[in-house]
Design goal:
Elements: E1 5-10, E2 16-21, E3 26-30, E4 36-40, E5 47-52, E6 59-64, E7 68-73, E8 78-84, E9 86-87, E10 91-92, E11 95-100, E12 106-111, E13 116-120, H1 125-128, E14 135-136, E15 143-145, E16 151-153, E17 168-169, H2 178-181, E18 198-203, E19 209-214, H3 216-226, H4 230-255
Antiparallel strand pairs: 1-2, 2-3, 3-4, 5-6, 6-7, 7-8, 9-10, 11-12, 12-13, 14-17, 15-16, 18-19
């Protein structure tokens, strides 16, 4: 097999370059002289993730399709930490991407099974409150193009970036309770009644009718057409009264007094 470089990354201060080769080795090079310093052995498949620590120039993270995640000390050429992404009943999950947090205390990875793995110091209690499955209800909604070739959401006929914040649902499309809906940016301060999604029946492209979450904004707009709000009615009534008073004043001004004297100008 001809060796090929699959990934390359500089460390934090650019003194070292790490390359991932398709023979499953990681090689650490001196970036100034080009000298090979270390061979890092541990991966059993190709590596497509190399992530440098945000401020510690010694630390480099690697992950690959073999499900392995390594933390390396590239100055010594040693393995610091190792995690194998084994999923119960499904085998290992290939790791597709990893990123450090800005403070370098945590890193997160995504795998081929759609899981988000979060590593770091401290307890995991804040994350234990979050449901196992979280998707946006608009994740797999079909898109169409308008006459200007712009993309629109097929159901609401709106541009995706102008649609209201989506709802959180599980893998079967069932909405999560309101306390989880507040995790969605834009819904943090919504009233409870606005955090309860509306369910409706939608026909798929195959002609099958399925139950689906419908955005709150679309439902509210439909309800306003059938049953206007009390506030809108009061505003219309006040506007009507003002129009009537204006019309009466104009009629009295145009007719004038019967003795022919002009109507005095109002202050």
């Amino acid at each position: 097999m001809k060796p090929k470089v699959t990934m390359i990354a500089w460390n934090q201060n650019d003194n070292y370059v790490v390359t991932a080769v398709n023979n499953h080795l990681l090689k650490v090079w001196n970036s100034c002289t080009g000298q090979l310093l270390h061979d890092l052995v541990g991966h059993a498949d190709e590596v497509f993730v190399l992530e440098t620590h945000p401020f510690d120039s010694r630390i480099m993270l690697s992950a690959g399709h073999d499900g392995n995640i390594f933390i390396w000390d590239i100055t010594k050429g040693t393995k610091t930490k190792h995690y194998f992404n084994m999923i119960e009943g499904q085998g290992h999950g290939a790791v597709f991407d990893c990123k450090f947090s800005p403070d370098g205390q945590h890193f997160a990875c995504t795998d081929s099974h759609g899981h988000l793995l979060i590593f770091g110091f401290g307890c995991s209690r804040p994350y234990e409150k979050i449901p196992d499955q979280m998707f946006f209800h608009t994740d797999y909604r079909p898109l169409i193009r308008d006459s200007n070739n712009y993309v629109l959401d097929e159901q609401t006929q709106q541009a995706p970036h102008l649609m209201p914040p989506p709802f959180l649902v599980d893998v079967d499309g069932n909405p999560h309770p309101t306390k989880y809906q507040r995790l969605v940016p834009g819904r943090e301060n919504c009233a409870d009644e606005h955090l309860i999604p509306q369910l409706g029946y939608v026909a798929t492209s195959d002609g099958e009718v399925v139950e689906q979450v419908i955005g709150q904004q679309t439902v509210d707009q439909d309800e306003q057409v059938v049953e206007p709000s009390i506030l809108d009615g009061i505003i219309r009534q006040l506007q009507l009264q003002q129009d009537q008073r204006t019309g009466a004043d104009q009629e009295s001004a145009s007719s004038g007094p019967p003795n022919g004297e002009g109507t005095p100008r109002r202050g």
